[in-house]
C-alpha cells in the first residue's frame, strides 16, 4: 500500500512538471535556423508519405511556397507564431484532410476537473458564416441575448470580420472546391479563437438582433448536480434502440446519428438521414432499415448526407451494397508512396491506455501484415486487392426504387465518395450544393502523425489515395448535384428546407 501511495504521489508530481514544461515552451521563441529546419522537415515528410501531393498544386508551385516561407522567417518565433506562417502553406496543397495543428496548451488535472463541471462557452452554439459575418444558427440551451439569427459583431472588442480574415488562410478543402470553407469556418472559428486567446471563463460580445445592438458577457456556467442527474436519466432512456434509429445516440446534439422515416401517409417515400459514417451500429441499422424498406410500399428513397463529414469506408461500402443489383467494386485499389510508407502509420493512436501493452505485443504481427499488403504495378505501389477493395455482392434486401441524395458543401470525405459513386453509376439523382470533398477521391485512410522537431507542431499526413471506382471527371471540383439548390441565409435560419421540399414536389409531380 505504501508503494502504491508513493508511486501515485510521484506520478502526480511528474505529471505536473510535465504540464508545466510543455506550457513553458509556448512562450519560448525558436531560432531562425531551427524554424527553417522545421519547414524542410515538413516538405520532406510530405514528399515521402503523401501519395498524391501534386494533385491540386504543381511541384514548382509548392517548392516556391516553401522557399518563400523560409525567406520571410527573419527572427525567432514562438511555436504558434510559426504555426500562423506554416499552416497557410499547408492549406495551399488543397487537401481537406491535410491540416497542421497548433501547439496546444496542456491542462493540469485540477483545470480539467474544473472544466468538466462547467458548461461550454462558444461551443454551446452552432453558427453560420456568410460573407465574413457570423450568425447564431442554433441555441439549444436558450441562453439569453443569443437568439437564432443574432449576428455577432465583435468578440473581446475585436470586429468579427477581422478574426475571419485572419483565420481564412488556415481553412482548406479538396481541390478547387469553394463550398466547404464557410461550413468549416463556422465549426472551427471558436477553436481558432480559443487557441489564440486561451480558455476563457467569460467573454464580451457585441451582437445585433432585429436591428437592436447589445453588449453583454457570455459565461461558463457550473453544471448543477440536478442537471447532471437529469441529463444522465434522459440519455439512458434515449440511448436505447428505437425503431428506425438503432442506438448511436449523440449525447451532445441530443439526436440519433442515423434515422429512417416515412414522411408521407402512404409510406411510398422513405427518408434516411446519416449525420456521420461513424461505423458504430451501422450494420445493424442498415440490415433492419432495408428489411423494413423491402416490406414497405416505398418507391422512393431520399438519402440525406448534408453536413456529414464522412468517416468509415467500410460503412459506405456496406451501404452501397443495398443500392445495387449486381456485384460491384466500390473503390479502386488504394495507392501509397512506397512499400515502406504504411510502416509510418501512427499505430497506437486511439488505443486506450490499458490496451496499449496488448497492442505492443501484436505490433510485430502488424508489421508483417503491412509488409505483405503492398503490391507494385506500373511503377506505383498499391494496397493489395482484398477486403474493402475486392468485388462485393449486392444485398438480397437491396432497394430497387428511385434514389435521391441530398448534399451540400459540408458533405465531405466518405460522404463525397458515396455520392460520387452513386452519381457515377447513374444510381441516384443528387440535389443541393456541390460537396466539400472532390468527385474523384481524397487522400486519407490511415495517417502518419509527424511532430515537427523544433516547434513540436503536429502534421497528420494521409497515407492512402482513396478513389471511387468510377470514370473520373478530372475537374478538381466536388460532386456536382444534378439539381443545384442553394438556400438563402434567411431560409437556413428559419429552418426552411427548400432542397427537401423540391424533392417532395418532384416526386409528387411524378
UniProtKB/TrEMBL annotation:
Keywords, in A-Z order: Hydrolase, Protease
Pfam families according to UniProt: Peptidase_S41
Keyword Protease set for record: yes
CC per GO annotation: outer membrane-bounded periplasmic space
Gene3D superfamilies from the UniProt entry: 2-enoyl-CoA Hydratase, Chain A, domain 1 (3.90.226.10)
Boundaries of every Tail specific protease domain copy: 244-486
InterPro entries named in the record: ClpP/crotonase-like_dom_sf, Tail-specific_protease
Domain of life: Bacteria
Keyword 4Fe-4S: no
GO BP term, pick one: proteolysis
Protein name: Carboxy-terminal protease
Organism: Kaistella antarctica
Amino acid at each position: 500500500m505504501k508503494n502504491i501511495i508513493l508511486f501515485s504521489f510521484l506520478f502526480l508530481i511528474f505529471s505536473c512538471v510535465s504540464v508545466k514544461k510543455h506550457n513553458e515552451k509556448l512562450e519560448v521563441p525558436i531560432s531562425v535556423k531551427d524554424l527553417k529546419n522545421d519547414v524542410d522537415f515538413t516538405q520532406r515528410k510530405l514528399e515521402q508519405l503523401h501519395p498524391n501531393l501534386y494533385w491540386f498544386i504543381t511541384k514548382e508551385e509548392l517548392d516556391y511556397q516553401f522557399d518563400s516561407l523560409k525567406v520571410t522567417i527573419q527572427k525567432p518565433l514562438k511555436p504558434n507564431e510559426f504555426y500562423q506562417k506554416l499552416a497557410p502553406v499547408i492549406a495551399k496543397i488543397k487537401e481537406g484532410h491535410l491540416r497542421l495543428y497548433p501547439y496546444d496548451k496542456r491542462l493540469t488535472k485540477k483545470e480539467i476537473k474544473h472544466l468538466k463541471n462547467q458548461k461550454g462557452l462558444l461551443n454551446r452554439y452552432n453558427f453560420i458564416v456568410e460573407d465574413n459575418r457570423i450568425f447564431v444558427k442554433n441555441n439549444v440551451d436558450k441562453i439569453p441575448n443569443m437568439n437564432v439569427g443574432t449576428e455577432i459583431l465583435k468578440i473581446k472588442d475585436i470586429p468579427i470580420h477581422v478574426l475571419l480574415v485572419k483565420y481564412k488562410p488556415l481553412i482548406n478543402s479538396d481541390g478547387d472546391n469553394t463550398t466547404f470553407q464557410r461550413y468549416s469556418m463556422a465549426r472551427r472559428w471558436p477553436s481558432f479563437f480559443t487557441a489564440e486567446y486561451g480558455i476563457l471563463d467569460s467573454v464580451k460580445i457585441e451582437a445585433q438582433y432585429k436591428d437592436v445592438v447589445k453588449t453583454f458577457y457570455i459565461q461558463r456556467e457550473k453544471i448543477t448536480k440536478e442537471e447532471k442527474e437529469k441529463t444522465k436519466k434522459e440519455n439512458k432512456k434515449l440511448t436505447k434502440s428505437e425503431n428506425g434509429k438503432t442506438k448511436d445516440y449523440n449525447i451532445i446534439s441530443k439526436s440519433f446519428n442515423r434515422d429512417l422515416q416515412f414522411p408521407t401517409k402512404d409510406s411510398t417515400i422513405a427518408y434516411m438521414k446519416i449525420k456521420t459514417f461513424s461505423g458504430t451500429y451501422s450494420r445493424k441499422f442498415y440490415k433492419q432499415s432495408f428489411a423494413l424498406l423491402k416490406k414497405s410500399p416505398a418507391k422512393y428513397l431520399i438519402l440525406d448526407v448534408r453536413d456529414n463529414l464522412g468517416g468509415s469506408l467500410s460503412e459506405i461500402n456496406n451501404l452501397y451494397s443495398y443500392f445495387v443489383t449486381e456485384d460491384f467494386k466500390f473503390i479502386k485499389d488504394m495507392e501509397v508512396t512506397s512499400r515502406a510508407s504504411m510502416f509510418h502509420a501512427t499505430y497506437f493512436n486511439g488505443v486506450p491506455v490499458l490496451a496499449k501493452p496488448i497492442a505492443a505485443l501484436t505490433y510485430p504481427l502488424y508489421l508483417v501484415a503491412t509488409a505483405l499488403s503492398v503490391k507494385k504495378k506500373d511503377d506505383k505501389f498499391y494496397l493489395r486487392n482484398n477486403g474493402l477493395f475486392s468485388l462485393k455482392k449486392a444485398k438480397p434486401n437491396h432497394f430497387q426504387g428511385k434514389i435521391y441524395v441530398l448534399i451540400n458543401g459540408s458533405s465531405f470525405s466518405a460522404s463525397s465518395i458515396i455520392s460520387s459513386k452513386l452519381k457515377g453509376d447513374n444510381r441516384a439523382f443528387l440535389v443541393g450544393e456541390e460537396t466539400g470533398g472532390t468527385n474523384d477521391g481524397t487522400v486519407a485512410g490511415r495517417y502518419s502523425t509527424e511532430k515537427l522537431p523544433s516547434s513540436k507542431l503536429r502534421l497528420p499526413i494521409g497515407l492512402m489515395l482513396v478513389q471511387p471506382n468510377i470514370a473520373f471527371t478530372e475537374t478538381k471540383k466536388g460532386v456536382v448535384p444534378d439539381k443545384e439548390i442553394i438556400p438563402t441565409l434567411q431560409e437556413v435560419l428559419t429552418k426552411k428546407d427548400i432542397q427537401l421540399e423540391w424533392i417532395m414536389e418532384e416526386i409528387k409531380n411524378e
